[in-house]
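Much of our argument rests on the idea that a fold can be written as discrete symbols. This step matters because it turns folding into a mapping between discrete strings. The record that follows shows the chain in one-letter code together with its fold in token form.
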Amino acid sequence: MPERYGNRRDVEEFEIESDEEEDEMQGVGRRVQPSTSRRPSINDFQDMEDDPNLEDDDDELEVEEFEERSASASNARRPIRIVPDWTENAVQGEHFWKPTSASGDLCCLNEECIKSGQRMKCSACQLIAHQNCIPLVNEKTQLACKPTFRDVGVRQYREQSTTHHHWVHRKMEKGKCKQCGKAVQGKLFGSKEIVALSCAWCHEVYHNKESCFNQAKIGEECSLGNYAPIIVPPSWIVKLPTKGNFKSSIRVNNKANVTIAGSKKKGMSKRQKQKEEKKEPRAFIVKPIPSPDVIPVIVFINPKSGGNQGVKLLGKFQHLLNPRQVFDLTQGGPKMGLELFRKAPNLRVLACGGDGTVGWVLSILDMLNPPITPAPAVGVLPLGTGNDLARALGWGGGYTDEPISKILREIGMSQCVLMDRWRLNVTPNPDVEDDNVPRSKDNVPLNVINNYYSFGVDAHIALEFHEAREAHPERFNSRLRNKMYYGQMGGKDLILRQYRNLSQWVTMECDGVDFTGKLRDAGCHAVLFLNIGSYGGGTHPWNDSFGQSKPAIDDGMIEVVGLTTYQLPMLQAGLHGTCICQCRSARIITKKTIPMQVDGEACRVKPSIIEMSLLNKAVMLAKRKHGRGDVQVNPLEKLHLTILRITMQQYEQYHYDKDMLRKLANKLGKMEIESQCDLEQVRNMLNAKFEESITYPKVSQDWCFIDSCTAEHYFRIDRAQEHLHYICDIAIDELYILDHEAATMPQTPDQERSFSAYSQRIGAQNERRNMDQQGRSGSTGTQLPYISKRMFCNYYYRKKRFEL
């Protein structure tokens, strides 16, 4: 029985190894397939054909060949990573190593093992190797990790959209064989024999026997297992080729220092050139296949939350999902991940961390321009303490080592709900002078409320705790010690009663009604504005029996509660505060510096005027009780596209300059198209519109689509590949078509008026010429040349292009 099934990639081609070679190798078995590399075709170079200035560059080809030959050698020298590389240096099959101390884990190199360094395990495929053996593992392509992206060119990424099994040899395996149903038995005394094979994607396990696993399974398509609806397939993530690569839509001629994409950049202004130089090139792009059956989930993990829980969760999610849909928030924040997956259908976000982590993700969603539509639903996996938002959504107060598989299943079955978010506008109080309190600020730490906003004694305790922890972090390494400090500060304020006169320092209006007198009557030491029901680690200050309606996170109202130093500790016993009102807007005027906190972030704020109003409603994921009900999936969004036509002359001259082509393109009309339509279907729709509609100008049959959103420059879509591409692949708000036989007649009203004036002038000139020839004119002026309609159109087009 062969110990390995798969293939070995040489420098230039794939070769299927013989049975004798397979007996000597152990590790990862990969499917046997023909080489995906091929000779460049006419489609690969069709943009370069259009360029009259294109020159052959033998040095360029030599550099490409050298890079290709040295790729395997550089793999051995690449650094050890725990998260994916999103730069142009990313390598297919790269492992994500983490230390392991589990007994029975043996190095995958067997006889070649150096037996030096700490044992490491790949989070994605669970391969084991010593730290000093990792360079040898990188050299062996049969030991590569499961593929996480596609490295094909901007034109071929749709040619293969299926995912195949990635078989990994196991010396120890838990579980049952899918073929025979029997448990996998491990060998005794540290045997190096391969006992099973398992897929790194769907996690199916088979005995290493001919009766259970045969060679036919190597090329089988993988279903991605139980989590297929939420896994991002590697075919969705496309690595963009760099400039100078033959797979790129543009090339760079180093000799002339000219970009060969149609012409030299003579048409670009100085500002455009500076903007082009500052723009960071994208190394990856996500090309999802639109389907209502998929619910992709991208995971953001804050490793600093919950002690060491975040680091452990990072590896667990990388094992069950595509590692490229799991992001470490310490590596640049959530913006890159949200921008990458903005076009994914039914997108959901899982924020693993505290309430601050969730607020961070929501704030980045607000900043994206253009915003993601429809907005992705955000779920919470609570880490650490507090986690009031997670409690309000039903996810609990903390992660208790539940199986990640159970969490992913609950995220897939969760319910989408809306949550109010409130804006805080803080301006200085012009009627009061600054009291010069040390470390006071002009604004609150956050200007958006997700959970709560408060001022008074509770914000003072939170601020004292944060300042003490910053000064002596070594004293706050225990959850019990932190709670003891909070109790100590609360007891101190209970005796000193520093904020007993809070109602004399503030004026509060809610929906235009003055509630300052009610604060004075209740003797409030703190005022709390609650957007959710939970506060301070699971307490409930608002009494649901008060008011006309029961509070909800999407009712457009915020609850106002007054607290005293006596009521604060009693909240832990299940008691409530003093309910003031429910309101849709509020205005607070402070007359001295007062501590304030927003979602747990506290600071001292100078005398100010604080105005609160509803900002928006965020889409959140609430845990469905007992897993009942159907999964809530939104219908796929329809694209509202503006159809723009570009002539061949414009494309040849400016297809490297998107801004110029937008100015030159002629608007044909607007259409509403389903996002799951492929380009063949869209072509039929457009041709029907062109033939039937009077408002659409005539378009020749020889037109093609232009991809305006994949690469940094425009490029044409081959008509033979239109059935492979979806409309969402090439267009966002504007759909460009290239008309090879487009007339140069004017399209806009201004151009039509200008054209009419020129036409009358030329018509009069031609009429005078005819009269002179027939001898019916008494004029003795010079004879004017005859100008044809074609000559005039060409002259008019050149003149308008010069003006642009």
